[in-house]
Specification:
Blueprint: E1 2-9, H1 16-29, E2 33-38, H2 53-64, E3 70-72, H3 85-95, E4 99-106, H4 107-112, H5 119-125, E5 127-131, E6 146-148, H6 158-166, H7 177-186
Parallel strand pairs: 1-2, 1-4, 2-3, 4-5, 5-6
Helix pairs in contact: 2-7, 3-5
This protein binds adenosine-5'-triphosphate (ATP) and nicotinate mononucleotide (NCN).
Nicotinate mononucleotide binds near residues 10, 86 and 109.
Length: about 200
C-alpha cells in the first residue's frame, strides 16, 4: 500500500524546521510521497500577518521542486471556511482509497490535539507522526496515539522569521534560499510604517 505523508500548516513562511521534519519523517516511515498542505483559514490562529495564499503556495512550490517525493496540495485553499483537518483527510481518503495517510505535527500541535475539530474521528483516519519542538510538552491526552519521531529539535518558527524580516535581520540559513528570494522580491513581512502623526 502506498504511504503518503500529509504536512498541513500555515507555512507563513516555510522554514528549515519544516523542511527537516519533512525529510526525517519520509526517511523514518519510508513514505512514498509527502504533500505540503497550506491552510486557507487556520482553524486556531489569529492571522493579521498572514501572507496571501498565492505567496505561501509559491514559496512551497519552489522549495518542493527539488525533492522528487515532495509536492504541494491546494486542497485546503480551494475550500472556504476554517481548514479543519478532518474534512481534508476525509476528502483525500475518498479520492485515494488505497493510500495509507500519515499526518505530520510538531510538538505544539500535539499539545493542542484535544481541541481539534472531531479529533476522535480524525484519529481513526490517519496515523499522526509528531516531533518535539522547543517550548512544547509534546504531551496531551492524545499523545499516546502519536508516533513520536526522534530528531534534532530546531528552534525556528515562522513567527521568528517574520520578526527578523520586520527588524531587517538576515534569515539566510533559517529558510530555504528560494523562500528568502520570494520574501525579498515581494517585500513580505516587512515592518509596516506606523501612520504619521504630523
Ligand atoms: N521547528 C519546527 N520543528 C518541528 N515542527 C515544526 C517546526 N515548526 C513548525 N512545525 C510544525 O509544522 C506544522 C506547521 O507549522 P506552522 O506553519 O504553523 O509553523 P510555525 O513555525 O509553528 O508558525 P508560527 O510561528 O507562525 O505559529 C505544525 O504542525 C508545527 O508544529
Ligand atoms: O482541524 C483542526 O481542528 C485543527 C486545529 C489546529 C490545527 N490544525 C491543522 O494543523 C496543521 C498545523 O497548524 P498550524 O496552525 O500550526 O499551521 C494545519 O494543517 C492545521 O489546519 C487543525
Amino acid at each position: 500500500m502506498k504511504k503518503i505523508g500529509l504536512f498541513g500548516g500555515t507555512f507563513n513562511p516555510p522554514h528549515l524546521g519544516h523542511m527537516l521534519f519533512a525529510q526525517e519523517a519520509c526517511l523514518a516511515y519510508e513514505l512514498d510521497e509527502l504533500w505540503f498542505i497550506p491552510v486557507n483559514v487556520p482553524p486556531h490562529k489569529e492571522s493579521d500577518e498572514l501572507a496571501s495564499n498565492k505567496d505561501r503556495i509559491d514559496m512551497l512550490k519552489k522549495v518542493t521542486k527539488r525533492h522528487k517525493t515532495f509536492s504541494v496540495s491546494t486542497i485546503e485553499v480551494e475550500r472556504e471556511g476554517p481548514s479543519y483537518t478532518v474534512d481534508t483527510v476525509k476528502l483525500l481518503k475518498k479520492r485515494y482509497p488505497d493510500v495509507m495517510f500519515y499526518f505530520l505535527i510538531g510538538g505544539d500541535m500535539i499539545d493542542y490535539l484535544p481541541h481539534w475539530h472531531r479529533i476522535d474521528e480524525l484519529m481513526t483516519l490517519v496515523t499522526f507522526i509528531g516531533t518535539k519542538r522547543p517550548g512544547s510538552t509534546s504531551a496531551s491526552a492524545y499523545s499516546g496515539a502519536v508516533e513520536l519521531l526522534d530528531m534534532v529539535q530546531v528552534d525556528y518558527s515562522s513567527t521568528l522569521i517574520r520578526q527578523r524580516v520586520a527588524e531587517g535581520k538576515p534569515i539566510t540559513y533559517m529558510v530555504p534560499d528560494e523562500v528568502e528570494k520570494i520574501i525579498k522580491e515581494r517585500g513580505l513581512y516587512e515592518a509596516r510604517r506606523s501612520p504619521s502623526t504630523d
